[in-house]
Amino acid sequence: ANSACLVVPVYARKKLSAAAEELDKASRGKIESFLKKGDFKGKRNQTAWLYDLPYVKSDRVLLIGCGDQKTIDMAAFKKLSSVAANAMIKNSVTTCTNYLGTIRNKHLNTSTVSKLTPIAFGDSTYRFTSFKSKPGDKVTLRSVALVMNDKKQLAKARKSLSVGTAISAGMHLTRDLANTPPNVCHPSYLADQAKSMAKEFS
Description:
By secondary structure, this protein is α/β, with parallel strands linked by helices. Helices cover 44% and strands 14% of the residues. The protein contains six helices and six strands; from the N terminus they run ββααββαβαβαα. Strands 1, 2, 3, 4, 5 and 6 form a six-stranded mixed beta sheet that branches. Helix 3 crosses helix 4 and helix 4 runs parallel beside helix 5. The chain starts with a strand and ends with a helix.
């Protein structure tokens, strides 16, 4: 994948995910070699950066520790996605290919991971800059490609991504309104916002 960063899951006890295995094979064993050093064990929400792996087009690889694969429920998956997003934002990543979407168990399917990913990334990238004299830290992450297991589920994935993106947009608007000073966010202001949304989405 030709992006600035690859986000790759690794499970408990250094068990490689399918994506990590492919990357390890492509890089002539560099993933396994790194794991043997012992610093990264695949514990849930653990992160590690690898740079300039041979035969890998992306400059950076972000390993995400996922813990026991069987116990990753929706809340845990959302947290893993947030951990990945926050790590990339901190390191000024611009684009990424995200393999967390390949995690599957009894809790996670195509619809759930496709819906939760934009919600988690949207939450991490949210910034309220209005009414501030100095701009805050700029979020450089502008593109996330979510990799899925089954091409036959693509239509379902796109639908769930749309739902998750809409939920994220609604959360952003709610937070914007909550952060807007009361002398601005008065009843008539809220009414104008509602009318604007009704016009946009009608």
